[in-house]
Amino acid sequence: MHGNIGFGNAVSGKLKYRDVGCGQIGEKDVGKEISLCGWVFRNRDHGGLIFIDLRDRTGVAQLVFNPDVDAATHDQAHHLKVESVIAVRGEIRKRPVGTENPAIPTGMVEVYVKSLSILNRADPLPFSIEDNSEVSESLRLRYRYLDLRRPEMLSNLVTRHRVCKTTRDYLDGAGFLEIETPILTKSTPEGARDYLVPSRTNPGGFFALPQSPQLFKQILMVAGMDRYFQITKCFRDEDLRADRQPEFTQIDLEMSFVGADDVIKLVEGLLNRMFKEISGLDVETPFPRLTYRESMERFGNDKPDMRFGLELKDMAEEARMSTFKVFLDALDAGGRVKAILGKNMAAYSRRETDLLTQEVQAMGAKGLAWIKVKDGFESTITKFFPEEALRKMAEKLDAQPGDMMLFIADREAVVHDVLSRLRLELGKKSGLIGNEDKFLWVTDFPLLEWNEEEERFQAMHHPFTSPVDENLEYVLNGDFSDRAAVSSLRARAYDIVLNGSEIGGGSLRIHNPQVQRRVFQLIGISEKEARERFGFLLDALRYGAPPHGGLALGLDRIVMIMTGSDSIRDVIAFPKTQKAACLLTNAPSAVDTKQLRELYLKLTLPEEQGEPEE
Fold it and tell me: What pTM value is reported for the model?
């Protein structure tokens, strides 16, 4: 059967499978005889004529098998199973009037088949390739090669390809060099866990897979490369969720002799080009900016969704006018009292408000206070508030009759976290989230944050982020025992947010070795430890390091948003599950004892292990 492939067509002595892709034929080709190859997408027997939709990456072509043209070929087609691979040759004809399908590019024509070769027969499928078929994710990931045949998944990967191409074209035009950095590198734990790789040739030594190319791209700036980028894999051994994977892809870039505005302007230009060429959207620049503090106060987090309102409002002044002990105790303990608007929620029953209270308690709050706005104010707590306080709270929230005011009183971190999450829930439930993409820069982050578990400061972004100029003197000469002063230090950092998702982050870097040493001290890294872990960077900074800065965009997240996918797993060809497992290959898996011996490793496993989760 394989000897018939190509139908006698030869190109430079080689057999030719096809002339064009299935999705590339049209009315301009009527009357031509062509060869096509692909997968049987649908097979329909109309009592004499057999229609097969043949699919490849370019699209779908309708094949017609007529027993009057070739009875043997018609009989073969009758028995073809979906997803079998075939090659055909036939004549392109216009479809009869009334049978056209303008919804697809090839919908005005069909191919009358004269010859058919079956290249590979498909077994019955574990699930349908149709886009609208409901299939469990575990089954899709196990048979990923089938899942990727679905038009939706193919479209996602095409979009991903186009994002990469647009990025390369844009940055090349802006004077950037694409430079690869090592995948096997030094373990420098400060944040997420490293993935470690034992070295056979250096017994007892380990490489780490890079969490980012951070140190190498800084060294490239010291080396005078001036503008670097790469589309690179990064690895973090951390707990996963819908927008995280153990291996993910960054659009990574770094620039010399720049300020934050230079980096921001360049990235805005890249995103503008990306969305215009791929999604057809004119993204308005410059993007709005919020400081970290303003973002936390208004939205409760540093990646706010700007497509709707429901902003958090401080109610400390009004709480002080009341005798409501819950609010007063929270304020006296140094906490906060804040509220958001529950639009059209005054009709909630007691059972519904109790369920809402349980939701916020599950988020970490002690409870939820509420006041319904009707002709007056209704709640079990209104008796503790003078009328003036109730009116002021309603004015702050722009609460109208039919709305409900929702309050959290607790430590600031709890108040912001719970209300920011509740805000998103209410935005979705109330249908307030618009369809227009909203970009935002968040700037002026704290340089450090306090780690309660380890009782020390740690870098909010990473320890190579430069303090703002007005903090440099304190970093070089200040008293690090003053916790309040250290907490007030700010970073020259900036995050880019799209529709409530952080799609990238960056900063200006430390280029002065003395400043870098002092920042290490701030986060509890001794001089000896700094030499062991980052000595190569400290040495490089001593030899003429230019001011530099950059940013990394999350390619997976950008494509996820562009395609309207619910998870980055739908825009990665071969993703891992939330347990960091590959169901296609059954990785991670056990390895041969010989391999372990070669790496000088001996495993100590838990005594009891459950069955691995799919």
Answer: 0.90
